[in-house]
């Protein structure tokens, strides 16, 4: 009985969240012009640059970041391979509940691998959007 009640209140909760979100977006859009006219950006014209620490720091930092990225990518790939093997093992044994868990694990591992592999593109896109 409590399950039916919670299922009925779900659309109501979604509608309430959607109306609050639209009200917030409307308020932000209406006040954006006046708020931006009142304050100046103190970081306008400044961009991050690690070159101030010298070329040695730049090359060291790049190698360390690349090494960490490579290690995380390798661990993520191993996790994906293990998840795919678990799916194969569950199918061969006929274990339906284990197959469902393995499929969820493989989906998560696949998304994680894709995000790690595309981290450079993702960070670049975020910086492009933020910098305008």
Automatic annotation (TrEMBL):
What highest taxon heads this organism's lineage? Bacteria
Which key words tag this protein in UniProt? Membrane, Signal, Transmembrane, Transmembrane helix
Q: Where is the signal peptide?
A: 1-37
Transmembrane segment boundaries? 61-87, 108-130
Keyword match Membrane? yes
Question: What's the protein here called?
Answer: Secreted protein
| Native species | Rhodococcus rhodochrous J45
Q: What is the lineage of its organism?
A: Bacteria, Bacillati, Actinomycetota, Actinomycetes, Mycobacteriales
């Amino acid at each position: 009985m409590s399950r039916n009640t919670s299922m009925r209140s779900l659309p109501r909760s979604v509608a309430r969240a959607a109306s609050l979100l639209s009200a917030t977006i409307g308020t932000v859009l209406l006040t954006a012009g006046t708020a931006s006219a009142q304050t100046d950006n103190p970081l306008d014209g400044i961009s991050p640059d690690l070159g101030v620490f010298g070329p040695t720091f730049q090359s060291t930092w790049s190698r360390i970041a690349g090494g960490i990225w490579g290690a995380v990518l390798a661990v993520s790939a191993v996790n994906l391979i293990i998840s795919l093997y678990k799916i194969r093992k569950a199918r061969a044994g006929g274990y339906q509940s284990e197959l469902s868990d393995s499929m969820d694990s493989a989906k998560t591992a696949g998304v994680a691998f894709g995000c790690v592999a595309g981290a450079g593109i993702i960070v670049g896109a975020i910086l492009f959007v933020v910098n305008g």
